[in-house]
Amino acid sequence: MLKFELLKNDRQTRARRGRVTTPHGVIETPIFMPVGTHGALKAMTPAQALETEAQIILANTYHLHLKPGEGLVEKAGGLHSFMQWPKPILTDSGGFQVFSLPNKEIGEQGVHFKDEVTGKRIFIGPQEAMSIQNALGADIIMAFDECIPYPSTHAYAAKSIKKTLRWAEACQKHHRREDQALFGIVQGGVYDDLRRDCAKALTSMNFPGYAIGGVSVGEGLELLKKVVEYTEPFLPQEKPRYLMGVGLPEDILESIERGMDMFDCVIPTRYARSATLFTRRGKIRLTNRRYRRDFFPVDPSCDCYCCKNFTRAYLHHLFSANEILSATLAAIHNVRFYLNMVAGARKAIEEDDYLRFKDDFLAEYLSD
Predict the structure, then answer these.
(1) Does residue 316 share a domain with residue 253?
(2) Are residues 121 and 17 in the same domain?
(3) Which of 92, 197, 251, 261 is catalytic?
(4) Looking at the structure, do residues 230 and 319 belong to the same domain, yes or no?
(5) Nearest 5°: phi and psi at 262?
């Protein structure tokens, strides 16, 4: 069972310091969750992820359903055992991936689509999403929702949230495991009245946690902030809030200020594979020739394995030589950068100093 403790509210902002307890351990919030889409963080071992002090990781229902299949994962003892990750796991419902596919057919009961590799016709609805996630065995699972594109008309978004709410009720009905916490997902595009209505309806269903979905679909930071600002007041104070698919450091810090607790994104590991690393003074691209003779760490202020042992020149060499180790060291650094950032946010909230922390962090990060 999931337990949430609200430990502190920042006096100047809506930022919150919390603690989520799950069957596989405690999560201190605000927290960033690295993404292991196929049950693995790209270019990182579970031991390396633990060394970055990752507290919870995310895996993808849609991809694990296609390969290797939830039945095999269940026979292996569940996702924790299968991938040898001892801490909490969150699985998304697969809704975002399904709705981003071409030639999908959205009906009242769910979505028909084709396997991109085999061409096999597949159906996922609320019952199927619950069955898959129950078999995978993550600590936190997500309701199946319709993730609408940006931009969408008010009429389309209004029709969509009615479907999302019906599916949320169906997910509660078909959810079978008490050791897994099912979160509801607030949709409604960029329309404040629809976000409000969807949030109110979901909170009346008494989920153990709530997510804001549909905010990483191209709307930009300013609209993201507005959506969070007018949705957050309708989410319960005593339950965790998860902002799905967000994002860049500035996205996360602005959303923490507006009352969000949990975040996930593929950006740290994806950027790492293309030689883009995060530092306190912004992003750097290590394939640039300027780093060929740069014997400083990636970020002198960082305490990760990469920064404590290797130089920018060495990583430049690894990327130039197309060595696999380049992606590993870069991923370790980027994930640790994000986790250090949210750890700083937690400390600042405890000290009623979040606004200064955020402003100082972004002033340095966005300075170049």
Answers:
(1) no
(2) yes
(3) 92
(4) no
(5) -130, 140
| Number of alpha carbons in the 13 Å side-chain half-sphere of residue 183 | 29
Residue 92 falls in the annotated catalytic set: yes
pLDDT in tens, 199-246: 999 999 999 999 999 887 778 899 999 999 999 999 999 999 999 999
Q: What number of other Cβ atoms are within 10 A of residue 76's Cβ? A: 14
Residue 62 parent element (H or E): helix 61-66
CA angle in degrees (0–180, nearest 5) for 149-206-252: 45
Q: What is the pLDDT of residues 57-116, one digit of tens each?
A: 999 999 999 999 999 999 999 999 999 999 999 999 887 777 778 888 889 999 998 887
Same domain for 193 and 176, yes or no, is: yes
Catalytic option among 139, 251, 264, 299: 264
Q: What is the pLDDT of residue 139?
A: 98
Domain end marker among 250, 265, 280: 265
- Do 292 and 340 have their domain in common? yes
Question: What is the span of the domain harbouring residue 322?
Answer: 267-368
Least confident of 116-125, 268-277, 294-303: 116-125
Q: Are strands 209-212 and 241-243 parallel, antiparallel or unpaired?
A: parallel
Q: Are residues 89 and 232 in the same domain?
A: yes
Integer Cα distance of 50 and 273 in angstroms:
20
Chain segment 109-141, per-residue pLDDT in tens: 999 988 878 888 999 999 999 999 999 999 999
* pLDDT tens string 7-27: 999 999 999 999 999 999 999
Overall pTM > 0.85? yes
Token pair, residue 202, equals 């979901």
DSSP 83: H
- The residue among 212, 237, 265 that closes a domain is 265
| Distance from C-alpha of 43 to C-alpha of 22, rounded to nearest angstrom | 27
Number of domains in the chain: 2
Reading the block at residue 165, the tokens are 């709410």
Q: Are residues 113 and 257 in the same domain?
A: yes
Residues 119 and 166 in one domain: yes
